[in-house]
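Q: What would this complex look like in 3D?
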Amino acid sequence: MTNPNQAGAKEPLFLDDLQVGQRFASGSHRIDEEQILAFARQFDPQPFHLDAGAARHSLFQGLVASGWHTVAITMRLLVEGGLPIAGGLIGAGAEITWPNPTRPGDVLQVESEVVELRPSRSRPDRGIATIRSETRNQRGETLQVLVARLVVPRSATSTGAGPAA
Amino acid sequence: MTNPNQAGAKEPLFLDDLQVGQRFASGSHRIDEEQILAFARQFDPQPFHLDAGAARHSLFQGLVASGWHTVAITMRLLVEGGLPIAGGLIGAGAEITWPNPTRPGDVLQVESEVVELRPSRSRPDRGIATIRSETRNQRGETLQVLVARLVVPRSATSTGAGPAA
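A: Here is my prediction, written as structure tokens for the whole assembly.
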């Protein structure tokens, strides 16, 4: 039932163009200690994200990125062609797990799969696409699994205007 | 069954100190257009996060923050005393919904409630606390609901060392 990998397909897709099982691959991003510290200072100032020495004595036994940093980089990779959805990537909600921490030097890449498509009952011009995005590093270790519910216009003739579904 | 609001309590709490129904309140953070644009340029470069003019014609009918920016600010507010958990805030996973978008000028504040406590079967020194954190603006509108599963040491005598549970 799965479709061929759509990596490289960049024309934006509407809800009616998507199929369950369809897959997309993103570009990649290398994270380094400087990026980890900068994000942590701004949004998640905890010792295991801020200080390699303190991090060695933590649960993680070394410096790790904030999980919210991993998700932010994942979003960037999806927006930059990793998930070519018409109207942009507008999330109604998401579930996230972090099976392994992101560490300095990791090269992140995202593979996404369409898992459910549900036209809106109240708004015929749109629907919800549920997309499972797995962020892995260069050793193929899964750092994050993000299952997001996106608001997607049905077709090119849909307006997509008005408040969220 | 709910306990008094614990706002201001800042001594870090271990799993054995927490109770279902216990509540915590964070400080506040005012988000402005400049912050929204800076985050979007780095992590979520979509027109409705980057350009007030383009945003007027989007689903949101005006500039809105990336949902990942709302969650990052929420994390900052939790780390800075909004959720005083011993050993830090270490997430195993989370569920997020964004009932309303975050807009320039919104003042974000987070209220958290302990919803489940589960000692680890394999590791007697720790457990999982499930915490529901609601981020609201100055008008009391709910911008985000974050339900996070946190790894928490059982008591002050727990080491908290070793790989994640």
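A: To summarize the key features: The two ends of chain B are 29 Å apart (CA to CA). Chain B touches chain A through 41 residues (CB under 8 Å).
Q: Very helpful, thank you.
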